[in-house]
Amino acid sequence: SHSLEILHLSDMHFKRNDKAKFAFFEGLKKRSYDLIFITGDIIEEDLAINECLGALKGFKARYGIYGVLGNHDYCIYGLSDQIIYFFRNSITW
Q1: Is there a contact between 43 and 51 (Cβ–Cβ < 8 Å)?
Q2: Which of 76, 55, 62, 74 is nearest to 9 (CA)?
Q3: How many whole angstroms separate alpha carbon 34 and alpha carbon 38?
Q4: Which residue of 11, 21, 60, 85 is surrounded by the most CB atoms within 10 Å?
């Protein structure tokens, strides 16, 4: 029987100058994968887009890399948005 080597990356929330996270990703690229799944919340701040792309560039998978975006990947949230989201049923504005 053939086993599959699968890498699942989720909720990475890339920020600028997150050196430990970027080093970790470089280590992940040294292995071989059959499938890679990237499931949302890839980025936390717009200023980290180029660094995020650099961290993800170079991954390879025999059967492909598949991904979906999360809410952090297409929206900019301020503190008030977070408060409203987490306490929407208990705070009246």
Answers
A1: no
A2: 55
A3: 14
A4: 21
In this structure, what are the phi and psi dihedrals at residue 38, rounded to the nearest 5 degrees? -115, 115
Instruction: Name, in order, each residue with C-beta under 8 angstroms of 12's C-beta and a sequence gap of 6 or more.
Output: 21, 41, 42, 43, 52
Q: Provide the 3-class DSSP secondary structure of residue 50.
A: helix
Other CB atoms closer than 10 Å to residue 67's CB: what's the count? 15
Which structure tokens are listed for 26?
Answer: 């470089």
Contact, 42 vs 83, CB < 8 A? no
Digitized pLDDT (tens) for each residue of the chain, 93 residues in all? 689 999 999 999 999 888 999 999 999 999 999 999 999 888 888 888 888 888 988 899 999 999 988 888 877 666 566 666 666 655 444
Beta strands in 1-93 (DSSP E): 6-10, 35-39, 65-68
